[in-house]
Specification:
The complex is a heterodimer of chains A (287) and B (429).
Chain A: E1 12-15, H1 26-31, H2 33-47, H3 56-76, H4 86-113, H5 115-120, H6 127-134, H7 137-153, H8 165-189, H9 192-206, H10 214-223, H11 228-231, H12 235-248, H13 254-286
Chain B: E1 3-16, H1 25-44, E2 56-69, E3 73-77, H2 84-91, E4 99-105, E5 108-111, H3 124-134, H4 139-153, H5 168-180, E6 186-190, H6 198-213, E7 217-221, H7 225-231, E8 234-239, E9 242-248, H8 249-265, E10 274-275, E11 280-288, E12 304-312, E13 318-329, E14 334-339, E15 348-351, E16 354-361, E17 369-379, E18 382-395, H9 409-412
Parallel strand pairs in B: 3-7, 3-8, 5-6, 6-7
Antiparallel strand pairs in B: 1-2, 1-4, 8-9, 10-18, 11-12, 12-16, 13-14, 13-15, 13-17, 17-18
Helix pairs in contact in B: 3-4, 3-5, 4-5
Classes of the chains: A mainly alpha (287), B alpha+beta (429).
Chain lengths: 287, 429
């Protein structure tokens, strides 16, 4: 066995109090990629254990929401643009929305839910919210499987712009993680956050064009003195509109929306990372 | 030789939330209105606790300096609250020190708890991978050692069963097996040998000895002085957050025992190494026979009375008093607990501001030997006072079995158990 200490390979670690804003140490996160992988894998494996319907939940949730939306918002309230079936319209929006809201909720609660780990083992704490935001990707992919038969049924053809979907999904992940980083770190100190999250995601749904399209609300917002770019600061505006544009060929001032939302996501993510890393040292003592 | 761990002036300060007394309603309202903002302010400044006021702090560790050479196996001893676990947490980077620094050469594996991150819904196999990754092993490394881990845990048959169906013994075996196959250059272990059945403990001790023999650096926290002296040539002793001694294990253990004895010489009421700030304070304790004559030579199996003197700090009567006596053997293993809560007394409804309470045992169920006693109490549901190793008593050999023969704690185990032997009928198989 190779027990000879290899001097060159021995890493020296310096442990001392840190203060203020600290570096992100993303390289270290890479060293722990096996852990990240297993955390995601655990979340996925455990999610639907001991449920009757199992992974069908991943499809049922957006599907049933779509049915309810179609009846009340599509038929009764007559929302949604002309020339596209409302079920397809809302489902294409619900896909990234569900991915985002699940990721946000789970990463926000992740640190508090992993108290045991945090108090007993060292690893880059970032792995926890990242894994939690990543795990709903499986649900997301499963929910996609329903979309294509639906599109075939309603005679909607995907456009060539579907190549942008991975980028848009990444944007949804980034904004879920960015918000999740802020909220999970705050949640360690203030358990109020736990109660804020469901409320927050619910409100966010109404200011995101899932039920309606941006084109429908933009003129009225302008009338109220709110320019569309302010509306698009909600990162999910760009993502949801982008999804419909790429999948269904729905026209929207897509470039400016996605750009604004990307910038907002980037800001959220970077500040979230910085704040998380700054508070990280206190997690084990406070959580 | 190089130092694997070098600590210089390490310190760790914790902030304790202080309960503030609001004097007037107006102040209360102002305080209520202002505090969320102040908390948010503190939070943005990156203070340790946003939720607590930052007035009061205590040093869990202070001015700790030591060097541990590569390949050394070092024990860490000290009483509860001495800072042993905090030290390991700092060295394993779970928590940051508040002062000083430590240099660590090599990959650190820490084992502060057995089975951290085990998920009850996952199978044994899945948990091995998950737990291995949490402890810092790569996937390849786990795959390579998988068979060995399963062998060690003796769980071949159940490896694909969810661990929620495991018995606690099986669970511990699996958890320890993963941990035991961790091969970092530096291993930090906290009190994990205290779990599992005797046979498995022995196996773990063997594994630890093997690890130590491979030239790894090991730091081992334990209350089990026997294990420490068996495994560790040198030992480090902490006392109330400070490094009290660091040297050959025999010497340090002797010093530790002496320390415990000197603590005992201090009158209970003057002891400062206590926790809790409630109204009830223990003042004295003795063990006597039921007549109340002095305790010096109580025999194993005799009936005995713990007589506990207390005083109320605010001179008022004490209400709803729950008292507990913990009896441990000479190296600190808890043997049993006597609590008002276990008896029909439950809690004393009211006690005068100063007085004595008695706890009577019809027969002291302990073999001859030396035992230590810790005391705790709560008043009206609030934790009030706690003194570890408040008292030590010695039982001499008695004649509890009426045979003239009696067990001795050191040789036969601590307990005095009445038993009978008979010749029975039938064949030997």
């Amino acid at each position: 066995m190779d027990n000879q200490p290899r001097i060159s390979a021995i890493a020296e670690t310096l442990i001392q109090p840190s203060s203020g804003w600290v570096s992100l140490r993303l390289g270290e996160l890479w060293d722990y990629r096996a852990l990240l992988y297993f955390l995601v894998w655990r979340d996925i494996k455990v999610r639907y254990k001991q449920t009757v319907l199992g992974a069908s939940w991943a499809i049922l949730q957006p599907l049933l929401t779509m049915v309810v939306f179609t009846i009340f918002f599509g038929r009764v309230a007559q929302l949604g643009p002309e020339g596209i079936a409302y079920p397809i319209f809302s489902y294409a929006g619900l896909l990234p929305w569900t991915f985002f809201s699940l990721g946000l909720t789970q990463s926000s609660n992740s640190l508090v839910g992993s108290q045991n780990l945090i108090k007993k083992v060292y690893f880059p704490r970032l792995a926890i919210p990242i894994a939690s935001a990543l795990a709903p990707a499986v649900d997301f992919v499963l929910a996609f499987l329903i979309l294509f038969p639906m599109m075939a049924y309603y005679g909607t053809r995907p456009t060539a712009m579907v190549v942008w979907l991975p980028f848009l999904a990444l944007l949804a992940f980034g904004s879920a993680l960015g918000a999740g980083l802020w909220l999970s770190a705050l949640n360690v100190q203030f358990r109020d956050i736990r109660y804020v999250i469901p409320f927050f995601t619910q409100l966010l749904l109404f200011v995101t064009p899932v039920i309606y399209s941006t084109a429908e609300v933009a003129p009225k917002l302008e009338e109220m003195g709110i320019p569309v770019w302010i509306y698009a600061l909600n990162p999910m505006v760009g993502v949801v509109e982008g999804f419909r544009w790429a999948l269904l060929g729905l026209d929207a001032p897509i470039f400016s929306l996605v750009l604004t939302s990307s910038i907002a996501t980037l800001v959220l993510l970077v500040t979230g990372l910085l704040y998380f890393r700054r508070m990280e040292k206190t997690f084990a003592d406070v959580v | 030789m190089n130092d694997a761990i070098l600590a210089e002036d390490l310190g760790k300060r914790y902030f304790i939330g202080k309960q503030e007394r609001y004097r007037t309603l107006r102040e209360t309202l102002v305080e209520l209105a202002a505090s969320p903002f102040r908390r948010v302010g503190n939070l943005l400044k990156g203070h340790a606790t946003g939720a607590a006021d930052l007035h009061e702090s205590f040093w869990a560790l202070q001015e700790i300096s030591f060097a541990i050479p590569e390949g050394a196996v070092v024990g860490i001893i000290g009483r509860n609250g001495a800072g042993k676990s905090t030290l390991l947490k700092i060295l394993s980077r779970i928590t940051e020190p508040s002062a000083g620094l430590a240099r660590i050469r090599g990959r650190v594996g820490s084992l502060l708890e057995v089975g951290t991150g085990f998920h009850p819904e996952l199978t044994g196999r899945e948990n091995i991978f998950l737990n291995g990754a949490i402890l810092g092993m790569g996937r390849g490394e786990i795959l390579k050692k998988f068979e060995e881990i399963v062998d060690f845990a003796e769980l071949e048959k159940f490896i694909d069963t969810p661990v929620k169906h495991y018995s606690s013994g099986m669970y511990l075996r699996l958890a320890f097996a993963v941990a035991a196959h961790l091969e970092p250059e530096i291993l930090l272990v906290d009190e994990v040998l205290a779990v599992g059945d005797a046979a498995f403990q022995k196996k773990c001790l063997g594994k630890m000895g093997e690890v130590a023999g491979q030239g790894r650096t090991v730091l081992l926290v334990s209350h089990n002085l026997g294990a420490i002296s068996h495994l560790c040539p040198t030992t480090l002793m902490l006392e109330r957050g400070r490094l009290e001694a660091y040297g050959p294990t025999d010497e340090v253990i002797t010093q530790y025992m002496a320390k415990v004895s000197t603590q005992l010489a201090i009158p209970l009421g003057d002891r400062t190494d206590r926790r809790g700030a409630g109204p009830m304070r223990f003042q004295s304790i003795r063990l006597t026979d039921p007549d109340g004559t002095q305790s010096g030579s109580l025999r194993s199996g005799d009936s005995g009375v713990f007589e506990i003197g207390y005083r109320s700090t605010d001179g008022k009567p004490l209400i709803k008093v729950l008292a507990q006596i913990h009896v441990a053997d000479h190296i600190g293993n808890l043997l049993f607990t006597l609590s008002t809560h276990f008896t029909d007394v439950g809690r004393f409804e009211t006690l005068p501001p100063e007085g004595k309470i008695h706890c009577q045992m019809p027969s002291i169920p302990l073999a001859a030997g030396v035992y230590t006693v810790s005391l705790g109490c709560s008043v009206n549901g609030e934790f009030s006072d706690n003194v570890k190793e408040a008292f030590q008593f010695n039982l001499v050999e008695g004649n509890a079995f009426g045979s003239g023969q009696a067990p001795i704690g050191q040789r036969h185990g601590s307990f005095l158990v009445h038993h009978q032997w008979h010749q029975a009928h039938g064949r030997g198989d």
